[in-house]
Design goal:
- The protein is 73% helix and 4% strand.
- The chain has 155 residues and is mainly α.
- A two-stranded antiparallel ribbon has the order 1-2.
- Helix 1 runs parallel beside helix 3.
- The protein is globular.
- The termini are far apart.
Length: 155
């Protein structure tokens, strides 16, 4: 339906994931990290794929083609931003309250995906994809930035 524009947009996730991975390799300074810079490529792929599964499960067809194109463009661009995304929780519950909250959300999400895979996976993936821009907006509105947070965490 979308012709050459659709073809160009469909290549976006591949191109932007390549750029993101190249940036990751250049900036790699050890294996432990507390956050991702930009939306991780697997999360972008899961968001796109689960949108299709969600649509076919609910309506039996791919509806909202313009929304689908927007999702493809948005996750492609989010991969190359410097917006912060949380990492997986540590399975050591003694690492603080923030880690315990992430762990509980992870367990809740896993249970929802096991019980309702077609209905729950896309909303959870989209929620994670949106969590970065929402957190970034929250920081801007509060007048904070990552450097302030890192300094606060050290003290």
């Amino acid at each position: 339906n979308w012709g050459n524009i659709g073809l160009i947009i469909s290549i976006g996730p591949l191109v932007f994931a390549s750029i993101r991975l190249a940036r990751f390799n250049v900036r790699l300074t050890g294996f432990r990290k507390d956050a991702f810079e930009g939306l991780p490529a697997p999360s972008a792929a899961v968001t796109i794929a689960t949108f299709v599964v969600f649509n076919y499960h609910i309506w039996g067809d791919l509806r909202w083609e313009k929304v689908f194109l927007f999702i493809i463009i948005a996750v492609s661009l989010l991969m190359v931003t410097s917006i912060r995304y949380e990492t997986m929780p540590s399975f050591n519950l003694g690492e603080g309250a923030a880690n315990r909250k992430k762990f509980l959300f992870f367990i809740f999400g896993t249970i929802m995906v096991i019980i309702f895979p077609q209905e729950a996976f896309f909303p959870l993936a989209a929620g994670f994809a949106l969590s970065g821009p929402v957190y970034f907006t929250w920081q801007v509105l509060r007048g904070e930035n990552d450097k302030d947070k890192k300094n606060k965490d050290k003290n």
